[in-house]
Specification:
CATH class: Alpha Beta
Strand order of the largest sheet: 3-2-1-4-5-6-7
CATH topology: Rossmann fold
CATH architecture: 3-Layer(aba) Sandwich
Family: Belongs to the short-chain dehydrogenases/reductases (SDR) family.
CATH superfamily: NAD(P)-binding Rossmann-like Domain
Number of domains: 1
Radius of gyration: 17 Å
Order of helices and strands: EHEHEHEHEHEHHHE
Distance between the termini: 36 Å
Number of helices: 8
Pfam family, one: adh_short_C2
Keywords: Oxidoreductase
Shape: globular
Number of strands: 7
GO molecular function: oxidoreductase activity
Helix content: 40-55%
Largest sheet: 7 strands, parallel
Structural class: alpha/beta
Protein name: Short-chain dehydrogenase
Length: about 250
């Protein structure tokens, strides 16, 4: 599907990012794995190459403009172009009420989850316009509904939805499609660290109960949605935020 094309995945060290990097490679794309974590990202690169694909790692913090510029420049220097980007890097932040939320943590979450997507699109778009490619941004069901705690996460993910719509309108007539995905709880190191995956705890049981399908999501299920949104099969889809939520948003 993507033979000879180039895909950049931020936050590619684990979870959804890793699964998407592997999925892009399985479809024939050359893959750039970007993240702050070199050891884990190296494992993602090995998974791609062991399966016969081509990939390399760029260390980058998406909240830092110079890092993002270098990330994109190294991608184009290595592979000569950029067709697709999955702007996935993100953090969770604190789960406390708004009045108790630390200002420094708020700034960190917004810098990575929201500004990081902005910076990524800013420097990716000139090259993606040239290839008439596609971008997928990482939002969340938290970008489509409210919640009782975690104000910075909800704010950042709502912001991603708005930026995706704005950029999609700006670049629609240039042959570039820009969409977002909005997963519910997916089995990743991030959600495991937050305590969401242990169904024997009150928090874990509550998270599981929120999903009408009776289970949590797998990273590969989100990855396949990203692949579809980048593919020609989604050629008439832009500015859309696609829930991958096991029915969470139905009620």
């Amino acid at each position: 599907m993507f033979e000879g094309e180039v895909a950049l995945v931020t936050g590619g060290s684990s979870g959804i990012g890793r699964a998407t990097a592997v999925a892009f490679a399985a479809e024939g794309a050359k893959v750039v794995v970007a993240s702050r974590r070199s050891e884990e990202s190296g494992e993602t690169v090995r998974m791609v190459t062991d399966a016969g694909g081509e990939a390399f790692f760029v260390q980058a913090d998406v909240s830092i403009s110079a890092d993002v510029q270098r990330m994109v420049a190294q991608t184009v220097e290595r592979f000569g172009k950029l067709n697709y980007a999955f702007n996935n890097a993100g953090v969770g932040g604190n789960m406390v009420p708004t009045a108790e939320y630390p200002e420094d943590v708020f700034d960190k979450v917004v810098s990575i989850n929201l500004k990081g997507v902005f910076l990524s699109m800013k420097y990716e778009l000139p090259y993606i316009v040239a290839t008439k490619g596609a971008i997928v941004n990482m939002s969340s069901v938290a970008g489509l509904v409210g919640g009782r705690v975690g104000v910075a996460y909800y704010a950042s993910k709502h912001g991603v939805v708005g930026m995706t719509k704005a950029a999609a309108l700006e670049y629609a007539d240039k042959g570039v499609r820009i969409n977002a995905v909005a997963p519910a709880v997916i089995k990743t190191p991030l959600t495991e660290g937050a305590g969401f995956l242990n169904k024997d705890t009150q928090l874990g049981a509550m998270m599981l109960a929120r999903h009408p399908v009776g289970r949590l999501g797998e990273p590969e299920e989100v990855a396949q949605a990203v692949i579809w949104l980048c593919s020609k099969r989604a050629s008439f889809t832009t500015g859309h935020t696609l829930p991958i939520d096991g029915g969470v948003l139905i009620p």
